[in-house]
Design brief:
Elements (H helix, E strand, L loop, with lengths): L1 H14 L6 E10 L2 E11 L2 E9 L3 E3 L6 E6 L2 E6 L1 H16 L6 E8 L3 E2 L7 E3 L2 H7 L8 H14 L5 H15 L14 E5 L9 E5 L8 E3 L1
Parallel strand pairs: 3-7, 4-8, 7-9
Antiparallel strand pairs: 1-2, 2-3, 4-5, 5-6, 10-11, 11-12
């Protein structure tokens, strides 16, 4: 992971003007259900770009709407979370921290490490330096230079300190969220999530996590 993030930093250094695209790395933000950690954030007059890095080899299969994608190495297959969904939480946290419109924040997924896409991918899912090409495709200004500087300062203030302790705290939150016995919090309102069973529809009989304040809050999460 660290190697992949370093490569993306190098691509950005070579291809994106650092005065136009102001950047922060390993940004950890508080969320209602714990913390979320963003690999890279680029702030520019043309929008805010949130980069999730995947250092993977083999063949990659996936689509925008699938909950999980597949990595195949020879005859072995491995499932991993759809990185677009993973990065959606990052963009939501960033929008909340910076108080900016959703259409100014753009999700970008960057694969490095010799992987090959075996299915069609959205334009914002790229190989290596292709992330810079995607970012540079946005040419309509949405922020002034002064606004970009103000957003940068707000993010520097609003992020958690980039220390080992912050990283360890974030890892602990991830372990708690993956533990089915641990108390879960709603990512939207912060209330407890409770285990429910679908009573109708295509998923009838299946279990899911739902907000305890339903119907006031309708957040649902798959097991």
């Amino acid at each position: 992971g660290h190697i992949g993030e370093l490569l993306v930093r190098l691509f950005a250094h070579w291809q994106l003007d650092k005065q136009t695209y102001r950047r922060l790395h390993n940004v950890t933000l508080n969320t209602p259900d714990g913390t979320t950690q963003i690999d890279h954030v680029f702030l520019s007059p043309y929008g805010i770009f949130v980069l999730e890095t995947k250092n993977m080899s083999g063949w990659i299969f996936g689509s925008e709407k699938q909950a999980q994608w597949t990595q195949q190495i020879y005859k072995q297959r491995f499932k991993f979370q759809n990185p677009l969904r993973q990065n959606y939480k990052h963009t939501q946290a960033l929008e909340s921290t910076l108080q900016v419109p959703p259409d100014t924040v753009h999700s970008v997924i960057v694969f490095v490490g010799g992987s090959t896409f075996k299915t069609d991918m959205p334009a914002n899912v790229t190989y290596g330096g292709g992330c810079a090409d995607y970012i540079l495709s946005f040419t309509q200004p949405v922020f002034s230079d002064a606004q970009v500087q103000a957003l940068l300062q707000r993010l520097q203030t609003g992020r958690m300190a980039p220390t080992r302790a912050t990283h360890d705290q974030h890892v602990q939150h991830l372990k708690e969220r993956s533990n089915p016995q641990a108390t879960r919090k709603c990512p939207q309102c912060g209330s407890a999530l409770v285990l429910r069973t679908a009573k109708s529809g295509a998923e009838i009989g299946s279990q899911f996590w739902g907000c305890s304040t339903y119907p006031k809050c309708r957040v649902m999460q798959k097991l």
